[in-house]
Amino acid sequence: MEQSELDELWQRKRLQTIRLMEVSDLTRQLLQALDRRDETSVRILLSMREEPVRRLLEIDNSLRKHLLTLPRESAIRARDMLNGSPPETEEERRLCDQTAQYRKLLEATLEMDRRASLRMGGKRSFYTMFRES
Predict the structure, then answer these.
(1) 3-state secondary structure at position 1
(2) Neighbour-count burial for 85-102, b at 16+ CB within 10 Å, e otherwise
(3) Distance between CA 9 and CA 31 in Å, rounded?
(4) Quick check: 129 and 41 in contact, CB under 8 A?
(5) How high is the mean pLDDT in each 10-residue block of the chain (133 residues)?
(6) pTM for the whole structure
(7) Radius of gyration over alpha carbons of the chain, in Å?
(8) C-beta separation of 122 from 114 below 8 A
(9) Closest by alpha carbon to 49, among 59, 60, 57?
């Protein structure tokens, strides 16, 4: 894979990570508001979280579309790296490290979201209704 392709993918993944940091921060604040039983803050934070989540989804869609523009071999390798494969060359390391950072933050954010959802919705929570067996 060419360096320019790796650089483009890294930039997109970096932007995705930055957007996820916004969602994570708002989710953390949401949990704190739930702990305080501050319903007004909860409503505000849920509303504030919508836009960063939407932008995060747009970046993900854009990244997926970008993979379709790459040569077949590069697209396959890029997909593998974005799914957590280790770097095969030193040039790939930066993208793989960024992807690992994103995955770690995503897991932490999803866990916070699960806790918030269970506190707010109880048995009607998304995580209760659609939990994995």
Answers:
(1) coil
(2) eeeeeeebebbbebbeeb
(3) 32
(4) no
(5) 94 97 97 95 95 95 95 96 96 97 97 90 68 52
(6) 0.87
(7) 18
(8) no
(9) 57
Tell me, letter by letter, the H, E, C secondary structure of 88-130: CCHHHHHHHHHHHHHHHHHHHHHHHHHHHHHHHHHHHCHHHHC
Amino acid at 7: D
What is the chain's length?
Answer: 133
The phi and psi torsions of 88 (rounded to 5 degrees) equal: -95, -20
Contact 28, 40 (CB under 8 A): no
Q: Do 34 and 119 meet the contact criterion of CB atoms below 8 Å apart? A: yes
Gap between the Cα atoms of 74 and 23, Å rounded: 30
Alpha-carbon dihedral sign for residues 131, 61, 82, 98 = negative
* Residue type present at position 120: M
3-state DSSP of 37-61: CCHHHHHHHHHHHHHHHHHHHHHHH
- Single-letter amino acid, residue 21: M
